[in-house]
Predict the structure of N-acetylglucosamine kinase.
Amino acid sequence: MRHDGSIAHMVRRNGSNPFDQPLWRDVLRDLMGHVPAATAAIGLGLAGYGESRTVTAQQQEAVRHAVGCRIELMNDVAMACAGAFAGQPGVLLLSGTGSMAWATDGAGRQCRVGGWGSLFGDEGSAFWIGRAALAVMTELLDGRRTADAGFLASCADAMGLPRQPEACGAALLEWYGTLDHERSAVAALARSVSDLAERGCPTAARLMTEAAGHLIAHIEAARRKFPDVALPWSYAGGTLRSSFLRGAIAARCGAPAPPRLPPIGGGVLTAARLAGWAPDANWINQLARTLDAAGLGS
């Protein structure tokens, strides 16, 4: 970014999540190789950073000697929080394939809630919703559940599967057996569940309401960690594009604050401050417009 909030250089690369991208080191090193020589500072948000000492050390090693400027590494959700509140107090709720909340008191203290991954948690995430929907489908196919019979046809339609139970079951197993990336494919089903909930499907509404309950627990736990500070909440991640889900959370936690900057903006803002720019509100607003025009908005 330039001083005027415009983009000087932009490169797009694949994800670098060390938990599901085997070539994540190559992605990071390649990305660092495209950093312009005139760069004053970098704010880099990395999935998993600070969560595992081993992974964090590997991430630091991957970028340590790649650039000559000042660089601050942070968790990608911390970066999203920095963008959403521009350094002010708040709780950033993220729900995408996984789920996590990150809170800051605006004075340097931070905390994390959730983010344990699909084996231990990720409650309320897109993966959690998709897996719950698949569980209902398989119970209906087996005859273990009868109360939600209409949900089977709705999900089958959304997934492009036949409605007839026997054919649907065979097609569902075929779908599962040919997946290249299970978590992403299952998480993608959350959008269909949200659409069904918004169209009045009671089963889908129940699943989305249960997901909201888990995400509400994330916000409330984060707020309890900083009881002396009023913490508004904001959001990031594809799951929270669902108006049904946001509405269910808002009923308990209050209306969300619109993110001031998208997640990548938190990295840019961190770099600007690291470079000594002291960005003000006008600069932050200009940055938001720039990122949105570049297709990098939330």
